[in-house]
Specification:
Structural class: alpha/beta
Largest sheet: 14 strands, mixed
Helix content: 25-40%
Strand content: 25-35%
Distance between the termini: 38 Å
Shape: globular
């Protein structure tokens, strides 16, 4: 990236990060809950709303394994999703002119099952969006096939890289988005109780590493061992917390992504320009 302050968006963008506790296996009920939360975010001015990882079926591996037909949504060959259970989300997106990113288990025509972020466009169309590339632990690896490529969402001139939970534990993932010109990074997630330190550190680091805004949505509540810790947040391009929810309870966090602040930070912190193209070559071995 030769000039990270060139081609910045012309106007601010309001983004919401949601934390809530879906019901395992109840895609229709969770879609209704999501629509209610999207309406709440839109009432606070949000143009983009991010909900947690696997929100539609809930992040509950036993249920995902036992009833894949009921837990999954099906994408066609063009990546479109026509599931009528998602109609409440389509309706609120159309009525409020918002873009929704929401976690789902997606079945593809070639038989792959992915842990994905569905994209509900402001026109109400639903697409398979982005499939999580880094699967976490034996449960996810048994249930899903990893995604094949990254994805960038364009909204009102803002380029928003998409990640899902464990993706953001790899600095290269957010850096790939930044190298593609991303101004922000949207991460539906599912962090369990006990992971609070890592939850708060990873997303702040990805913001500062790449001088991008980060929206982190997370599940909350549930029964052990699948009990989630909330903390949904928006981070600025220096990794500062603009707004963070509590570790418990439902919440909708809304903040403004500001192109002027993005310009200021990128002008002062030039990691995207100064990074050497290859740092993995021969190293000098020193002894002491």
């Amino acid at each position: 990236m030769t000039n990270p302050t060139a081609g910045l968006p012309a106007a601010p963008l309001s983004v919401a990060a949601v934390q809530a506790g879906p019901v395992p296996g109840d895609v229709a009920g969770n879609a209704r809950s999501a629509a209610r939360l999207v309406e709440r975010a839109a009432a606070s001015g949000a143009r983009v709303v991010v909900l947690p990882e696997l929100f539609l079926p809930a992040y509950h591996p036993p249920t995902l394994a036992a009833d894949p037909a009921g837990a999954d949504v099906v994408a066609d060959g063009a990546g479109r999703v026509a599931d009528p259970r998602l109609d409440p989300l389509r309706e609120v997106a159309r009525e409020r002119r918002v873009v929704v990113v929401i976690g789902a288990a997606v079945r593809h025509p070639d038989g792959r099952r992915t842990c994905s972020s569905l994209l509900v466009e402001a026109a109400g169309r639903v697409g398979a969006g982005y499939a999580k590339q880094h699967l976490w632990g034996p449960d996810e690896n048994a249930l899903f096939t990893p995604g094949r490529c990254g994805a960038t969402l364009l909204v009102d001139g803002w380029r928003l890289g998409l990640g899902v939970c464990y993706d953001a534990c790899f600095p290269e993932h957010a850096r790939a988005a930044a190298a593609d010109g991303a101004h922000g990074y949207l991460c539906p997630s599912g962090y369990l109780v006990g992971s609070e330190h890592r939850r708060d550190l990873y997303y702040r680091a990805r913001a500062l590493d790449n001088t991008i805004y980060v929206a982190f949505a997370n599940a909350v509540g549930g029964a052990p061992p699948w009990r989630f810790n909330g903390g949904a947040a928006i981070y600025d391009p220096e990794g500062r917390t603009l707004h963070r929810a509590a570790d418990s309870g439902e919440a909708v966090v809304v903040e403004r992504f500001d192109p002027a602040e993005l310009h200021r930070v990128r002008d002062a912190h030039r990691m995207l320009v100064d990074r050497l193209p290859d740092q993995g070559g021969v190293r000098t071995l020193l002894t002491g």
